[in-house]
Amino acid sequence: MTADENDEMLTEQDVIDAATRLPGVVVVTADEASGAPEASWGDSFVHLDPDRKFPFATIVTQDVPGWDTYSALDRDGAFRVNFGVGRAGFEELLGYPPAAHAAHADGIDFTVGDRLLPHPTYAAQSWVSIVCPTRASLPLVQDLFDRARAHAARRRRTG
After folding, report:
1. Can you give the pLDDT of all 159 residues of the chain as single tens digits?
2. All residues at 6 or more sequence positions from 18 whose CB lies less than 8 Å from its CB, including other chains
3. Strand partners, 117
4. Which of 3, 11, 4 is nearest to 138 (CA)?
5. Number of helices and strands in the chain (H, E)
6. Are 5 and 134 in contact (CB under 8 A)?
7. Which of these, 28, 10, 48, 67, lies nearest to 150 by C-alpha position?
């Protein structure tokens, strides 16, 4: 792969394909027919099948005024991939516990692409995100799906 190919942004489908490589994973994309709220149409929710109550990852394609505009997803082709990695995973990846996120949030530009970041609204719940991941980030995206799926499976067994 050349440097230019490495810098190429992944598509939402590339990310969905990475998620569905994992066993037992189902991805549901919200639309009018699904009965999902209009604000989530086009967003995808990654679940352990058959439990579709709580996604362990999401692919968000648009800003939601009044709720989440931190990543400026109104840019052409922009989207954010979010992963629920658990407290230990969050701290390992970002270097501080989710409960300490408020002390770190002011210095974070949540619009920066292709960088592992705390989730702009769900960091305290142990979620991380990547805005506009590139092909170079695909191994990280796959690792984050693995971590989030494993965390969701543990919660399912103990919950």
Report:
1. 556 777 899 999 999 999 999 999 999 999 999 899 999 999 999 999 776 789 999 999 999 988 899 999 999 999 999 999 999 999 999 999 999 999 999 989 999 999 999 999 999 999 999 999 999 999 999 999 999 999 999 987 765
2. 138, 141, 142, 145
3. 129
4. 11
5. 5, 6
6. no
7. 48
List residues bridging with 84 in a β-sheet: 127
Q: In the structure encoding, which two tokens stand for residue 96, read together?
A: 């501080």
Which pLDDT score is estimated for 104? 94
Q: Do 81 and 27 touch, CB atoms closer than 8 A?
A: no
Distance CA 147, CA 35 (A): 29
Q: Which amino acid is at 156?
A: R
Could you count the other beta carbons within 10 Å of the beta carbon of residue 128? 24
CA distance 129 to 23: 22
- Asked if residue 49 lies in contact with residue 40, where contact means CB atoms within 8 angstroms, the answer is no
3-state SS class at 47: strand
